[in-house]
Amino acid sequence: MGCRLAIAGVTGAVGQEFLKILEEREFAFDSLKMLASSRSAGKSITFKGKEYIVEELTKNSFEGIDIALFSAGGDRSKEFAPAAVEAGAVVVDNSSAFRMDVDVPLVIPEINPEAIAKHKGIIANPNCSTIIGIVPVWPLHKANPVKRMVISTYQAASGAGQAAMDELEKQSRDILEGKEPKCEAFPYQIAFNAFCHNSPLKPNGYNEEEMKMVNETRKIFDCADIAITCTCVRIGVFRAHCESINLEFTEAITPNQVRDLLSTAPGVSIIDDRENNRFPMPIDATDKDDIFVGRIRQDESIPENRGINLWVAGDQLRKGAALNAVQIAEKLL
């Protein structure tokens, strides 16, 4: 017995990834409704050998739906998710709309699956950078509490959707052909460039993305006093984010202990080949479910061997978005 499933935002980059992952994981459903904006309504999508017509997302779209996977943007989630809940569906929302709401569980199944049971109709999927960064930190934090995290992100164009990936491709072609690149999806040239993450700056000088990582990590870890500081940067890579993570622990910890803990951690793979200077890259993580971890080394600037440096790579569209949501949906069933 499967469920009656709806996907809101099915034509976007994450929506397309939902379909791919549902098929790969043989997610059991009895019926599937594909929803998107009025612009995409009427389009035909073939999924698992069957043709579906995309319907316009409205407040009346959710009658008889059990689970609704949302990746339609924060404004649409705020507008339509409550209607889905009212119709009896459980919403797994990929936007930032409800993440910090005290009544909404913010879930990474490898970390806090028990929070799913506390939902009141909506479960929030964390930010992609948060997921990719903290899946490998959690098993370490459980073994030896982390006091402070310093994170620098190297974020792919995929985090800003299909239009941003298309822009990276077009700019690259234009520049190589000697043409002037046009900026539409991003405020600055993304091809052959890096710039401060394109989310709004807060009064404290940090951008929204950086503050999401701080606040979401504290909520997911249920640890309000963990010290976290972030610098988030966009780079000219299509998909898969990388992050440099510096951790200060309560007690001494060695790189070998970290490797041992991560070698059995769910959703984590290690690429840490010092001899060949071979560590995680975006191309390793692209289209993969796991978060890849390497450059595991002692931070010699922190006394008593309480500091560790990590380098991670994870597919922003998969574990950073669609896969995490589908894993939540699987647990709901």
Shape: globular
Strand count: 15
- Uncertain parts: none
CATH topology heading of the largest domain? Dihydrodipicolinate Reductase, domain 2
Count the helices. How many?
9
CATH H level, superfamily name of the largest domain: Dihydrodipicolinate Reductase, domain 2
Beta-sheet strand percentage?
Answer: 25-35%
Q: Which structural category fits the helices and strands?
A: alpha/beta
- Describe the main β-sheet briefly: 7 strands, mixed
The secondary-structure element order is EHEEEEEHEEHHEHEHEEHEHEEH
Average residue-wise pLDDT: 96
**Cα-based radius of gyration, to the nearest Å:** 20 Å
Share of residues in helices: 25-40%
Q: Give the end-to-end Cα distance, rounded to a whole number of Å.
A: 10 Å
CATH-level-2 architecture of the largest domain: 2-Layer Sandwich
CATH class type of the largest domain: Alpha Beta
Can you tell me the number of structural domains?
A: 2
Main β-sheet, spatial strand arrangement: 10-11-9-12-15-14-13
Give your account of this protein's structure.
There is one protein chain. The chain has helices spanning 13-24, 74-86, 128-134, 137-143, 162-176, 208-221, 255-263, 282-285, 318-332; strands spanning 3-8, 29-36, 44-47, 50-53, 55-56, 67-70, 90-93, 122-124, 146-155, 194-196, 227-235, 241-249, 268-270, 291-298, 307-314. With 333 residues, the protein is of the alpha/beta class. The chain folds into 2 domains: 3-126 and 321-332, NAD(P)-binding Rossmann-like Domain (Rossmann fold), CATH 3.40.50.720; 131-316, Dihydrodipicolinate Reductase, domain 2 (2-Layer Sandwich), CATH 3.30.360.10. The strands form 3 sheets. A 7-stranded mixed β-sheet has the order 10-11-9-12-15-14-13. The chain has a 6-stranded parallel β-sheet with strand order 5-2-1-6-7-8, with helices on both faces. Helix 1 crosses helix 9 (318-332) and helix 3 (128-134) crosses helix 9 (318-332). The chain is globular and about 60 Å long. It starts with a strand and ends with a helix.
